[in-house]
Design brief:
The structure is a homodimer.
Chain A: E1 10-20, E2 23-31, E3 38-39, E4 42-43, H1 51-63, E5 71-76, H2 84-94, H3 99-104, H4 109-112, E6 116-125, E7 137-144, H5 155-169, H6 186-197, H7 203-212, E8 216-221, E9 232-236
Parallel strand pairs in A: 1-6
Antiparallel strand pairs in A: 1-2, 1-4, 2-3, 2-7, 5-6, 8-9
The structure holds a DNA duplex.
Organism (chains A, B): Flectobacillus longus
Domain Nudix hydrolase (chains A, B): 7-165
Protein name (chains A, B): NUDIX domain-containing protein
DNA sequence: GCAAAAGTGTTCATTGTACACCCATGC
DNA sequence: GCATGGGTGTACAATGAACACTTTTGC
């Protein structure tokens, strides 16, 4: 990462939601440095790169997914938003007795300025992703939305903000269909809605509501081997 | 404006909507340089300034209004977003035969890089504002939303984007009440809704809808001298 | 009294919610 | 046949749209 080629004091922060088995999770990385430094995936914007492409790149680097639907949900730009505090703590824990050397070096001067975060969120299928660490990560993994550790900076707040927007955008997101295989049942959609919105729907009414959106076409039935009526399969209309 | 104290390559762009007499207008400035360079009010972010405060400052400098409700509606960050083209044209028209001097000077190098616009919109009462030019403006004025001249950069697109958000946020905007005096009639609110949304409402149903929002309290009647029943006055609940 | 415009109420259609009922499936 | 879960239809409530009717105001 050569900061010279990047826009200064601006960060792209991605809240990557993942769905699996009735659970909504978020992708969070842990720094390879001592101390529990958890963070949202983020990155900088190259000078020759659209900001949306930068966000796509961040998602791709961590998940391998290309061209996912991304939504800008907010910007964060208070004066006090600095990595200073977090970095001071990191250096104190990892470079004992070398603090002064680091504080006087130009090496991370650019890094401690206040900076603006441009927030994007996306929603991916956990089963189609093998999370990738960056060179600064010890690990990266999925955390249930209600079981997220304390993150550095104000990222817990950023995350909650993204979650709020995801909920209110769920109907506009024809892209929850990115979570599903080519063909899927109504129950699978309902599970996703119920998980994200954290409420239950009456099965029969939910079906009507979704079909009224007029974005799905009904295919043949799906015989699962279960001893009950086979549900129809659907796919997104072309 | 000392760019050293500002965040580089980031601009705050404000779409300041104004309402007056059944018309929705937008505040647009014209550059004092030769050539028809129209622009949205914009500014930079000081290093010691929240981005929201920077937007408040832009609005205050142009309208005198303090602490108006501001809404972030989008960011614009394509690689091609540069002032280069606009500036080249400006210099060609205003500094004839000095183009080379300008192109080689460091004086506006920082100014021609690609930059990111953080967009905010607000809604103000035209009658309570006397628009103020900046040092670079020849004039500044209100233009009907459907009669906006060609703006520099991609600002026509930015404006349309803001207008779209204003429409869909109108109910969330308890702040259309900033347009109105302390006390107002139901008809005044209806006029604003109809102007912004560009559709008409049935008077009696509109009244029910607004009162159901449960944000207004009814006061005494307003006797205007007109020979008809006096309408009630309302004000926003505390 | 009368025209103008505001307040209230009523009707009808649309949408949403809850649930009863029937149907296919595999054992 | 029977338990399981999916599909269809129905009854009722809530909301929204259109409009009739009544009330107030100043001349």
């Amino acid at each position: 990462m050569d900061i010279i080629n990047c826009i200064n004091q601006v960060s792209i922060d991605c809240v990557i939601f993942g769905y699996e088995n009735h659970q909504l999770k978020v992708l969070i990385s842990k720094s390879r440095f001592k101390g529990d430094f958890y963070s949202l995936p983020s990155g900088f914007i190259f000078q020759n790169e659209d900001i949306e492409d930068a966000a796509q790149r961040v998602v791709r680097e961590r998940t391998g997914i290309e061209n996912i639907y991304l939504k800008h949900f907010n910007v964060f730009g208070k004066v006090g938003r600095k990595r200073q505090e977090f970095l001071d703590k990191l250096i104190a824990l990892n470079y004992v007795n070398q603090e002064e050397e680091y504080q006087n070096s130009d090496r991370y001067k650019w890094f401690i300025n206040r900076f603006i975060s441009i927030g994007y969120y996306s929603l991916v299928d956990i089963n189609s992703v093998i999370p990738q660490t960056s060179e600064l990560d010890e690990s990266i993994g999925w955390y249930n939305i209600h079981d997220v550790p304390e993150l550095i900076m104000d990222y817990n707040q950023v995350l909650q903000d993204a979650y709020h927007c995801l909920k209110s955008d769920i109907n506009e997101l024809s892209n929850i269909y990115n979570l599903l295989p080519e063909q899927f049942t109504m129950k699978e959609i309902q599970d996703i809605y119920e998980t994200i919105l954290e409420k239950t729907f009456i099965r029969t009414n939910f079906q009507k509501k979704i079909l009224e959106l007029d974005v799905l076409e009904r295919l043949e039935k799906k015989f699962t081997g279960a001893k009950n009526k086979a549900p129809y399969l659907y796919r997104v209309k072309k």
